[in-house]
Amino acid sequence: MSNLSAEERMAFVLKAREQKQKVVAALVNPLSQLVVDESSPKGSKRKNKEESRRISLSIHNKGGNVVAKVEEEEEEGEGEGETEAIAKEDVPVSTVPPPKYGNSSSFADTSSEDLRKMAMDYHIRGTMLSYFLSARQELKVIEVNNKINMVDENLGFIEKQYAPTKAKLVKDIKDLKTDCEEKIKEATNKEQLASAIKERDEAVLQRDQLSKEKGTLTNKVEGLQVDLGSQYDDGFQFYLEQVKIIFPEVEMAKLGQLDALDKIVDGKLVLFTPPGATFLFSHFF
User: Fold this and answer.
1) Main-chain dihedrals φ then ψ at residue 86, nearest 5 degrees
2) Which side of the chain, N or C, has fewer Cβ within a 10 Å radius?
3) Is the Cβ–Cβ distance between 190 and 198 less than 8 Å?
């Protein structure tokens, strides 16, 4: 008790006496035992559950595939009818060259006129063959050029038809990329918000736990203070009982007026009065 000031000791004793009075009142009046416990609502931890939603987008190809097929036609063989037609010309049988070549005696019976006709005939026949060959080659070149022109026209048509589809696909890809970036940004913001909410809930829960611990410690301190004041008051009453036994000549009425909270000022006993009242000096001794 040496570490306690007089004011602290008085406060502890008064608190102990008030506690005893409450106990006595509770024993006398059973209705006073009714205690209303108002429990404050605890901060509940709220979790924002977000279901990640997965979104799939498909881009349909609206432009039909245009395939240009160029079939190459092969010329099969050369017309043998032309040579046969030439062979069927009105040429005398006598002008047909004999199967023997390099033998001038075979033309001994042939006249000069017939020989000239034969030479002219062979010359015209070679010229006609050359003409037919060049015409056929030119025809093939024309057909190839026509096929090339058709392929170019088909390619131009394909490019012309594909241009809007290509532009639309580029725009769709750009929009899809922008949409994905916005969703990623939104998801990041939601994650940050969820993390902040979680930290806030944890802080609120920790605050509630600390408040609860503080209340428990406060109740323990108050209980110890009441217990200390009660022990001091009970010890003083025990000392008075010992004085009554040891000094029976002392007036019991005066001893009964003594209190554990009385003070000694300048050799005089100052009786305890409740806070707010005036202290009284006594001259018992």
Assistant:
1) -65, -35
2) C
3) no
